[in-house]
């Protein structure tokens, strides 16, 4: 009898996935599984940020608790032919990373509770919450967290991929400000990962994203934060030379100001074939008029400026950068370079050439070349991003994000090919100047980029070991197809 049920179990495990499996999920979690064309199903699909994220899962699960996620993962893991996707804010531009055709999408957005501890030192955030939900809760008591700069970005993807915030030059990556992850493993077990329990999983989740389980709650350290200076300055092309020089100076190790985070988005807008620069600057120190900000405010000409005293809830108001427009195909790609007197101008020139020779011919194209400093490595508990404690990337290393959006799927291959080529060109220019870097930021990366190689061999081996330990059957490697995989 035992043998027959074992054989049956194995057979079921390999039967093809079908709508009946979604019905089974529906029976286990009534009222939480949705099919096309229900209103909730359609609303979930149309809420993906990039157009290509809007796939057609067989059903969508909207869990309301870690227990729901546990029951679902246990059920889905039983049948190897079932594929599923994990979705928090749905902002990944990579095809199939947080949604799926023919399978189950676990849309975590009903799990969006945010609670502050009594002393306000910890914010407990369910991983379906977006940053625009978090800051109003923290701002009202004068604290903040290391979270996203876009209100609709999900906490789940942002934190597990690293996370660069307005305060990151001083306070590091978002993931390094986590004190505990609540995680549902492939077995369905709900565990905590922190500096005392499941330490290896705790470290792996800081940069390893969806390779180990479904994160259901993130406990974040808060820090005191009074209103700070921040805003955007929009410059015309005539100011580009001066801003690239100013950015190189801003990265100077001897004078850098850890309270200031500057993100420069050089943007091409296809509609009017214009180039402009949107500088987002945050100064979180107590100084009223910091010298470092004058570096930007003194550059002329400017089209507009919104630099003012603000807080994160206000700062999240919609960006004027047209690269973030809705209902478009989106591609991100990234590289990192060290700083030298001329590398920023060389990299910018390569991007402008790519716009002129190829991207500007694409219908509806908006493209951006975005640069910002790499956050410092953690002072205490390690993450998996691969920087040593002695590294000073906040002064030495620049993360380059190439972001495009455009209209038609027919143009996607041309955009992708030119973006990968541009990354190679920037890397070659960096190599010529001896400032080539290995690290690639996962949350900005295109799907073919080798993220975990960029963390270094030791970190990659560590991530593989942790994946084998917590998910011995490889559920999150094989059944959750989307995402950067450690194997
Ligand atoms: C408008 C915009 C603004 C941005 N601003 C910033 C910024 O300020 N700083 C920055 O660092 N990045 C920023 N990003 C990049 C952003 O961090 C990544 O796109 C991030 O992965 C988005 O997370 P998400 O939860 O919204 O995405 P999703 O598409 O839902 O998920 C991304 C990946 O994470 C996995 N994942 C999501 N939730 C979980 C979970 N709970 N458990 C396990 N795996 C999970 C998914 O399976 C998927 O592979 C921005 C992106 C956009 C589009």
Describe the model:
Keywords: FAD, Flavoprotein, Oxidoreductase, Signal. Residues 53-225 form the FAD-binding PCMH-type domain. It is a single chain. This protein is of the alpha+beta class and 487 residues long. Helices cover 33% and strands 22% of the residues. It contains 17 helices and 19 strands. The protein has helices spanning 2-14, 19-28, 39-46, 66-78, 131-139, 155-161, 168-171, 199-208, 240-250, 291-297, 312-315, 343-357, 393-396, 412-432, 451-454, 457-470, 475-479, and strands at residues 33-34, 59-61, 84-87, 104-107, 114-116, 122-126, 143-144, 178-184, 190-194, 214-221, 223-224, 228-236, 260-269, 274-283, 304-305, 308-310, 329-338, 366-373, 397-406. A hairpin with a 5-residue loop joins strand 5 (114-116) and strand 6. The two termini are 37 Å apart. Residues 318-325 have low confidence and may be disordered. Bound molecules: flavin-adenine dinucleotide. Flavin-adenine dinucleotide binds at residues 49, 86-92, 97-98, 108, 127, 148-150, 153-154, 156-158, 160-161, 163-164, 209-210, 214-215, 324, 443, 482-483.
């Amino acid at each position: 009898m035992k043998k027959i049920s074992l054989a049956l179990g194995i057979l079921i495990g390999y039967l093809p996935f079908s709508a009946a499996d979604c019905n089974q999920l529906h029976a286990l979690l009534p009222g939480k599984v949705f099919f096309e064309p229900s209103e909730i199903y359609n609303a979930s699909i149309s809420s993906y940020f990039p157009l290509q994220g809007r796939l057609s899962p067989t059903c969508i699960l909207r869990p309301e608790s870690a227990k729901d996620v546990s029951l679902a993962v246990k059920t889905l893991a039983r049948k190897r032919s079932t594929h599923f996707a994990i979705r928090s804010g749905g902002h990944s531009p990579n095809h199939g990373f947080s949604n799926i055709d023919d399978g189950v999408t676990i849309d975590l957005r009903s799990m969006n509770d945010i609670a502050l501890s009594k002393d306000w030192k910890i914010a407990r955030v369910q991983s379906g919450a977006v940053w625009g939900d978090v800051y109003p809760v923290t701002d009202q008591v004068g604290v903040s967290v290391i979270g996203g700069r876009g209100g609709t970005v999900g906490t789940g993807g942002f934190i597990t991929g690293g996370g660069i915030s307005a305060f990151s030059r001083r306070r590091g990556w978002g993931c390094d400000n986590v004190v505990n992850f609540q995680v549902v493993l492939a077995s369905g077990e709900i565990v905590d990962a922190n500096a005392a329990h499941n330490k290896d999983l705790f470290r792996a989740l800081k940069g390893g994203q969806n390779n180990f389980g479904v994160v259901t709650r993130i406990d974040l350290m808060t820090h005191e934060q009074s209103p700070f200076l921040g805003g955007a300055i929009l410059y015309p092309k005539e100011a580009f030379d001066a801003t690239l020089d100013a950015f190189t100076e801003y990265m100077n190790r001897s004078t850098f100001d850890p309270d200031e985070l500057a993100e420069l988005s050089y943007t091409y807008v296809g509609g009017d074939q214009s180039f402009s620069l949107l500088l987002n600057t945050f100064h979180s120190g107590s100084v009223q008029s910091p010298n470092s900000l004058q570096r930007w405010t003194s550059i002329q000409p400017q089209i507009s400026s919104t630099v003012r005293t603000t807080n994160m809830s206000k700062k999240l108001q919609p960006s004027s950068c047209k690269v973030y427009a809705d209902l478009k195909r989106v591609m991100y790609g990234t590289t990192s370079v060290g700083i030298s007197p001329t590398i920023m101008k060389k990299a910018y020139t390569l991007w402008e050439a790519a716009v002129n020779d190829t991207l500007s011919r694409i219908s509806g194209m908006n493209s951006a070349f975005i640069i910002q400093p790499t956050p410092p490595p953690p002072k205490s508990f390690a993450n998996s991003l691969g920087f040593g404690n002695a590294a000073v990337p906040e002064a030495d290393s620049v993360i380059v994000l190439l972001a495009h959006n455009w209209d038609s799927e027919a143009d996607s291959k041309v955009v992708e090919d030119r973006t990968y080529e541009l990354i190679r060109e920037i890397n070659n220019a960096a190599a010529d100047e001896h400032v080539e870097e290995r690290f690639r930021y996962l949350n900005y990366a295109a799907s073919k980029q080798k993220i975990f190689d960029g963390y270094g061999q030791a970190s990659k081996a560590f991530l593989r070991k942790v994946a084998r330990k917590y998910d011995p059957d490889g559920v999150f490697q094989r059944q959750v197809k989307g995402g950067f995989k450690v194997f």
